[in-house]
Each structure stands twice: as C-alpha cells, then as structure tokens.
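Reviewer has doubts. Consider these tokens.
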Amino acid sequence: MRILRYLLKKEYLQIFRNKGMLPILFAMPVFQLLVLSFAATYELKQAEFAVVDFDRSILSHELVQKLQASDIFKLNAVYFSTEHALEEMEAGNIKMLLTIDAGFEKNIKSGKSAPIQITVDAVDGSIAGLIQSYSSSIIAEFNAEKLGKVKMSSAAVVLPKSVNIIPSNWYNPNLDYITFMVPGILVVLVSMIGIFLSGMNIVREYEMGTIEQLNVSPIKKWQFMVAKLVPFWTIGMFDLCIGLALARFGFNIPFLGSLVTILTIAGIYLIVIQVLGLLISTLTNTQQQAMFIAWFLMVIFILMGGLFTPIESMPLWAQNLTLANPVSYFIKIMRMVLLKGSGWQEVYKMVLVLVGMGALFLGIALNRFTKTSA
C-alpha cells in the first residue's frame, strides 16, 4: 500500500499543479450545467403567427384574439393574400399561418362546417408538432364555446355531449422540461470528465517521458491502474455532488429516491467510464488522438443515450446499439431514482450491466498496457 500511496500522491500533484486544468475540472461543469439546463430544451416559449382573414367578421376576430390570449402565440401581422404570408414563412419571420375562409361566421351560426387552414413551418419537427397541438387545442376550445351558443330551430337536432378529460401527470406534474433534462445533463458532464481526462492519462506519461521511469519501477499493473483511476474518480464524484446540490436547490429537482443509491451507482459508473478512457489511452500514442477518439465515442453515447431523443423512438437497430451504451443506462437510472423514487429493486439489472462493461474494459486495458509497456 505504501507504493500505491506514493503513486496517488504523484497523480494528485500532477493534477493540482496544472493551473489550466483546474478551471476545467471544477468551474466548467458548473457553468455547463447552468447553461445547458436552459438551452437544451424542446419547450415552446413563443411562436409568432400571421393571419389571412377573408371573412373579417366578429367571430374570426374572436378566434384570432383567443390565440393571442395564450402565452404561446404572438400575432406578427395580418395579411390580405396567402402568397405574401407564405413568403414571410419562407423567410423565417413566422412559424404559423392561420387562414380563415369567407363565410366563417355565417357557417358557424347556421350550424354548418366552417373549415379553417393552419400552415406550420415544420423545419423543426418537434416545434411544429407542439405548435400544431397547441393551436388545435385552442381552436377546439373555441369551437366548443361557440357550438354551445348555437340555437338550433329544429327540435330533431341534438347537440353532441362532450367528454371532459382531466389529465394527471406523474413524476413531473408541471411538465417542466428542466426537471427532465437536468439529471441527464449531470450524467453527460460527469461522463466527459471521466472519459476525457482518463483517456489522456497514460498517453501524457508517454509524451512527458515519465512512462519509462514507471516501467522500471517496482510497481504492479493494478497499482498503476488504481493510481490513474482514483484521482479523477474523486474529482468526478465531487463535481457530481456539486451538480446534485445545484439541481436540488437551484432547479428544484425533486429527490424522490435515495441519495445514497445515486452516489453508489455513480461511483460504479465513473469507474466504468474511466476504465473506458484508460482503454482509449492504451490504444493511442498522443493526447490529441486520445481526445479525438474519446470525443467521437461521447458524441455517439450522448445522441443515442436518451438525453434528447427517447430510445423508444429510435429505429430497432439503434435501440439495439444502445444496449452497449453505458451513458444510456446511467441517464435512465438517474431519472428513475431522482424523479420516480426507484430503488435497487428497479435498477439493479442495469447496474449489473455497467459492472460487466467495466470488467470487460478493464481486462482489455490491462492486456493492452502490458503489450505497450513491454
């Protein structure tokens, strides 16, 4: 243990003597969490729309006012031709065009169908879906209000009865996107610290010329690997604790599960991702190569980890690939424990998969290090 203690002392000294690395280790994760939590969102804050009103009646004006009364839609302009309005949409000035045909008020008062047209800029499919959903809901509400006021002269006509739906949202009652995103962003930040820094660790010894001194020293492979893992593991756990504190007291993320469970699984996950970084370090010759490979893997892990896109919405082949993605497991675990209050009974299978990945990566890394250091 004395040898391991000296190796750990060496690693900590190298880290804290590097003044350029300290802000990256401690300040950058906090800054990224604060920025990404608000920037990485699919929430629709406001959408500008235009109107082409060929009816110019009281009811058509009321419909436009009802859209404006919501917090989502902002009236940009009223046009007299559809072509002009579509040109503005092509220029990106409006997101939705509402076209009201002539005879709109007359048809509603007479109980006939009064169709209107909604044209949505669907370059961003997710935003277009939200605009369509919100606008359809507002128009349906407007239709129900006017339908109830229509007095039919014929006694044979019976107005349809409406069905009231009272939704109840579990785990995120206010549908706050930050509540959904912050646990996943925490996983990404911890992963980047683990894989990037450990990925350049052994390679840095080669570039500094100190690897030969380590090779002729009376140290064992497991001591060398542990000394490379522990410093960045402790830093990663420290950053995670800061991130969890910000999530709880800064973003009001509900901690329904056990904090001990989160920290225990996070410790296991950090070992897995750091061992993967060490494996990358044994496969490369320069820090630049290690950085490129680590970044390549992290982009794939993040995009296919369920952070932005639900895994269930991916093609079947992509869903199968996520089975080998450690980031996807930990993102799911974080959301389950923090937002749903899940315990070991619900997540232990995913933890066992992470342990298996870590054992596999460690075995390959030890084998590769033996070959490169011989």
